[in-house]
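Q&A log
Question type: sequence-to-structure
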Amino acid sequence: MDKDERTPGAATAATSSSSAATQASGAKGAGKARVFRFGDPEPVLDRREFLSYAECRHNGRWYEPPVPMRGLARAYDMSPHHRSAILYKRNQLLRHFTPLSRNGRLIVPGDGQQPILDRRTFGEFVLNLLQMGNAYLQEHRNMLGGPLRLQNTPAIHTRRGLEEGQYWWVPGHRQADVLEGRVVHLFEPELTQELYGMPEWSSALQAGLLNFDATIFRRKYYKNGSHMGFILYVGEANLSEEDADDIEAALEDSKGLGNFKNMFLHIPDGKEKGVQLIPIGEAAAKDEFLGIKNTSRDDILAAHRVPPVLIGVVPQVNGGFGKPAEAADVFHFAEIEPLQMRTLEINDALGYEAIAYRPYERQAAPGNDQAANAA
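Response status: OK
Response body:
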């Protein structure tokens, strides 16, 4: 037999031997378990570290803020605890705010004088500072060059210009304009740049969004008549196609708001496990709704440093949160007064007094404090 005749035979034998070895190896490893991992941990800090190495970008006219101002504005309603904490601080500042006239005198009701900064404008200014981390007051002057009034410009549309002291009004839906006159910018300092501020509650942003997502998930869960969903497995040979169509139609009719219905299913000579209801998830045990809400609430209140008794949080323990009057006194001296000092920087920037506060009156009775100190 020559070489050409032997080569195909050798190749065939080798292929058969390889197939036999593969089958033997497959038969030998048929019962071997396979283990693999998926869903690697997702980094939450790495992707934003590049901001530490970059300045605020600009378009030749104004600087863009490090985070979208519109996103911060939408986060205002992400949690009732977040909004309540901000409104409590704003209301406390408004409560002690005293409007001043153009010459720095107190406004007396009925004398006809107009304040250089009224209460409504001041409330808008403080709300921008607390929520957005940036607040702007535009100064308008009269024909003689004297101060006339101060106007709040919302931080969502105000941008800092490349030229020193220049600010732009960028509404988005129309042409941007330069804000005339002097603009005073008060902001919460940020570590990566010095042009714009960041709100002090930014560390609790993820907790607030988690609180929001948990509420939306539970709302959709209750609106869905089938709850989390399930797999209806039917392994009955006696179940016809017509019966399967009837079951499908009955399940479709049971969905929707308020359609909590029961269904009767009878299959003659059925097996014990011929019909199985396999739940995809159990919301009451899996999503930990209350745990998520409570934990995210604590994170938000810790970022705002507001006692829960002051914003209507219901205590879960018998001891409660203490006396509201004592908590209000401590919070005022620890948080409200420093915030008042920050807003008084407006007077330094303007060169005249536009913001003033009346003294704080303690809410807790002095006798109770003396008794507590004696104890």
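Response note: DSSP finds eleven helices and ten strands in the chain.
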